[in-house]
Amino acid sequence: MPARSARAEWTGNLTAGSGHIDLESGAFDGRYNFSSRFETGTGTNPEELIAAAHAGCFSMALAHGLTSAGHEPNRITTTVHVHIEKGTGGFVIPLIELETEGDVPGIDETTFRQQAETAKNGCPVSKALAGPEIRLVQMKLVGA
């Protein structure tokens, strides 16, 4: 299986500098800076990109698990919140929260929750991010 890559370049110091991130595939090319990462400025940031990767991976893993269990989904939508805060030793990501919604015909809430927990623990991005607590905070089953 191929290795995937992205490239980032930062120019200048932390607070006044700026950076640029692009994906190998060309699907994303964006700028980032101190304000876009630690405040509410314009641009992207590493945490947003982690959230995007985690949302995509988790949604795929959940769809696979549901299908394997005989409950093929019409749709899985996941939003991921990556929290960053300043700790005593510098900035840390202490928490990642997943909110997922599934349109899955013929499934009950308990089975959906079990499949979501399995996907949370099993998706490759969750495994890669196992350092911070990853909490499935909201799930919504629609169309059941």
- Please give the number of β-strands: 6
- Computed Rg: 17 Å
* H/I helix tally: 4
Number of domains: 2
Poorly predicted runs are none
- Strand proportion: 35-45%
> What's the N-to-C terminus distance?
36 Å
Q: On the 0-100 scale, what is the average pLDDT?
A: 94
Write down the CATH class of the largest domain.
Alpha Beta
Question: How do the helices and strands follow one another from N- to C-terminus?
Answer: EEEHHEEHHE
Shape: elongated
Summarize the structure.
The protein contains 4 helices and 6 strands, in the order βββααββααβ.
Describe the protein's architecture and organization:
By secondary structure, the chain is of the alpha+beta class. The protein has 2 domains: 6-38; 46-142, GMP Synthetase, Chain A, domain 3. The chain has 4 helices and 6 strands. The chain has helices at residues 34-38, 46-68, 109-122, 124-128, and strands at residues 6-11, 18-23, 29-33, 75-87, 90-103, 133-142. Strands 1-2-3 form a 3-stranded antiparallel beta sheet. A hairpin with a 6-residue loop joins strand 1 and strand 2. The radius of gyration is 17 Å and the shape is elongated. 21% of the residues are buried. The mean pLDDT is 94.
